[in-house]
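QUALITY CONTROL LOG
STEP: pairwise intake check
CHECKER ROLE: data steward
CRITERIA: each record must contain a sequence immediately followed by its structure tokens, with no blank fields

ENTRY 1 OF 2
RESULT FIELD BELOW
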Amino acid sequence: MPKLSHTPTTNPEEQIHRIRRICTALPGTTEKLSHGEPTFFVAKKTYIMFANNHHNDGHIAVWIPAPPGMQAHLIATDPITYFKPPYVGVRGWIGIELAHIDNHALAEHILTAWQLIAPAKLRASVS
């Protein structure tokens, strides 16, 4: 498991603040409620879904798109941190348990998700 650079917390407000800090640094990001949870978009397409104990599943997590094959690899490598989320998991998205991941690794996953969804002209603006 990655070394944590923050105090692990299951406080949803602290976790969504953490997600907002990372996402709002990426060009073209907007946030709105979708299915009752904060959701982040680029070019009107979802790239991060916050999940606060969705249907009492016990996770304070984000659901994000991932490159092909990454979902299975991450879950096999670290099943405490990563899981197959409902609905979008069949499309290769990964669930990330926020209390078990450091800020650096989380930001890397979010950047990858953004790059998978953002249009080419926005991706070119981030080096």
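ENTRY 2 OF 2
RESULT FIELD BELOW
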Amino acid sequence: MKFFLIVFIFIISFFKVDFSQEKKEDLQLFDSVSVFNCEDLLSRLDGFAVSIMQNPNAVGFVVIYDNNNPIDNKFLEKYIRVYAELRKIDKNRFRVLSAKFEKGKRIDFWVSQNGFSAPNIKEETFSLVLPKAEKPILFVNDWVVIEKIDGKLTYSGECPACCINRIDLDLLADFLNANSQVNARIKIYGKSRKYTKILEKLVRDELINDHKISSNRFQISYQGKDEGIAQLPKNNTSIEIEFFSQN
């Protein structure tokens, strides 16, 4: 009886060790980066996505480490999530995780070859709370095009697939709602006053009507011509948004 018990325990232990080893080999670090621009990150994401799609059982994990800059964190997280949506990647096979601060900005790309395991990290939700600052905090500086689509005037920032920080009033509203002590200052530049006025109205209406942001929480002003877009058509403008304390 003891003999069979020993054999049974040995078999169970063997399979346990074997399965543990299988899980360990299943999860592989595909890539890691701490210094990057839009083009570099896009290229890495494309390579990562291809590696996942080549294996129907694989699950990919993009781990974004908190770099103590809430604006950068939220823009980066949204950029990667939007990337997966634009590429029509199954969200169950392309997971975006946020993790505690570890010595500055870093993104890790993990692949679970058979979906057995996930990175051993402590997940967190990136905070929207802005640090206290005496000077204004830059939210975004973006180039904007105003055009008519399906008979309706609208605006768009730089390419959403190739620029991380771009005009995003959804995210702006999130920060304003999370920080009652700050307001937003919106500066619009452009060589055509006609188009800058259109952008002013579009931004104001969206913040008030779509996001329910009170008009006393933001200021919009025309700042004159922007030499950086002097050679572009008149419907090109630029916008700078910053947060400033109400006190």
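INTAKE CHECK: passed for both entries
DESCRIPTIVE NOTE, ENTRY 2: The longest helix spans residues 2-26.
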